TrEMBL record:
This is Putative gluconeogenesis factor. Belongs to the gluconeogenesis factor family. The lineage of its organism: Bacteria, Thermotogati, Deinococcota, Deinococci, Deinococcales. Keywords: Cytoplasm, Membrane, Transmembrane, Transmembrane helix. HAMAP family: Gluconeogen_factor. CDD domains: YvcK_like.
Length: 441
């Protein structure tokens, strides 16, 4: 029973300290309030002592002197005590007023300082643009949002399978699936994030769809395209950062294989490759427009991140939009490729890390400045399970001297039976690269 009060007191002290943290925008106004209060008190004293209310000031002094007793407390000390009590009362009135205003807006007063602190701190975070799609990109975003609110995710829209494919075919819209994952990753509301990813398991016409995909389809239909509804999406979902499609036009991924065949569509690529390898990919139509907001974010970025994600179906499709590719080539900030942990059966079977980097360089026209590679050994049991599917660990085996000079290693593997990047570790590794860039500048 005695633990709760101490815990509450500790939280109260922590919240009080947070109000005075640099950058909160509180101390300057608090100081102004104190100065104005004392100046006002002196002005009021001058008015009463020299004006028609002189008799009131005299009676107040005599009453206060009689109340405290001249031998018990000097008159000037009594005045100081009254000023302190008055100032405390003024502070209390402001606090209670703020509490009433916060409650009327649905914000708990106890969490207000956390929200303000988070917003202020995150608004000063580094400007990062992440390009790609799939689970890898959403994992990265969920880690970065704890450090910065200046995140822009540029998401591929070439997916033509599952819920996204059905909505594309029915409504002639861009694929919403990867957008939904990124919105959920960056949403400030855990409830909304959970709802966005909810997949209907029954219901004619609903089965297989996620709520987020249906929401984006609804807004796109209502606004005549997702571009017009983008501002509403960010506001409704309380997104920490921005999420944009690489283009607002429906696009089809076309892959050319080493045996001369062409495979159309992202969803069937891995199944149709067979023993061949993917030589290159393109989008149809080729001259797809990029959103101006995406180009602005790329121009203002401090770091551009590619991946993690599927090489030919997540990362490269977003870079195949001409405006985006040109903006990345023209950017003078570091370009980082987050290497996958494993190759992907069918899509990148047999490809080395050097092959991954070469594919990016060839399609983009710019080589990554850094390649972020996991240094944590993948457990043998996990390797064995992936090997049954034809996947292998990506490492520096056979890498050239140039590539080895670009590689930055960090422990990025998330514990468990699935080879997946740890969001917090990945975000920390990228922030370290930014810090290194700033110190070198």
């Amino acid at each position: 029973m005695s633990e709760l009060p101490r815990s509450e007191a500790a939280r109260a002290r922590r919240r009080a300290r947070m109000w005075l943290t640099p950058g909160m925008g509180v101390k300057r106004w608090l100081l102004l309030f104190i100065v104005c209060t004392f100046v006002g008190a002196v002005g009021f004293l001058h008015f009463t002592w020299t004006g028609p209310l002189h008799f009131v000031a005299t009676r107040w002094i005599l009453w206060l002197n009689a109340l405290t007793g001249s031998n018990f407390l000097p008159l000037y000390a009594a005045g100081m005590a009254v000023m302190a009590l008055s100032l405390a009362g003024a502070f209390l009135s402001i606090v209670m007023l703020n509490r009433s205003l916060l409650r009327s807006t649905g914000t708990a007063p106890e969490t207000a300082v956390d929200l303000i602190y988070s917003h202020r701190a995150l608004s000063r975070g580094p400007r990062i643009v992440a390009v790609g799609g799939g689970t890898g990109l959403s994992n990265l975003l969920s880690g970065l949002k704890a450090h910065t609110g200046n995140i822009t995710a540029v998401v591929t829209v070439a997916d033509d399978g599952g819920s996204s494919g059905r909505l594309r075919e029915s409504l002639d819209m861009i694929a919403p699936g990867d957008l939904t994952d990124c919105y959920a990753a960056l949403s400030d509301s855990p409830v909304l994030a959970r709802l966005l990813l909810h997949r209907f398991g029954r219901g004619e016409g609903l089965e297989g769809h996620t709520f987020g995909n249906l929401l984006l389809a609804t807004l796109s239909e209502e606004q005549g395209g997702l571009q017009g509804a983008m501002r509403d999406v960010h506001e409704v979902l309380r997104v920490r950062g921005q999420v944009f499609p690489a283009t607002t036009m429906p696009a089809t991924l076309v892959a050319r294989l080493s045996d001369g065949r062409e495979v159309r569509g992202e969803s069937g690529l891995a199944q149709q490759v067979g023993t061949a390898r993917v030589q290159d990919v393109r989008l149809e139509p080729p001259d797809l427009p990029a959103l101006p907001a995406v180009l602005d974010a790329l121009r203002d970025a401090e770091l551009i991140v590619l991946g993690p994600g599927s090489l030919f179906t997540s990362i490269l499709p977003a870079l195949l939009v001409p405006g985006i590719a040109q903006a990345v080539r023209d950017s003078g900030v570091p370009l980082v490729y987050v290497a996958s942990l494993m190759t992907e059966p069918g899509e990148t079977t047999g490809l080395s890390l050097e092959d991954h980097v070469t594919a990016i360089t060839t399609h983009l026209g710019r080589a990554p400045d850094w390649v972020l590679l996991n240094s944590t050994p993948v457990p043998p049991r996990v390797q064995a399970r992936y090997a049954l599917e034809g996947a292998q660990v990506l490492n520096l085996q056979g890498a050239s001297r140039d590539l080895r000079g670009r590689v930055r290693s960090a422990p990025l593997l998330q514990p468990g039976d699935i080879a997946r990047h740890d969001p917090a570790a990945l975000a920390q590794a990228l922030l370290s690269l930014i810090a290194r860039t700033r110190s070198a500048a």
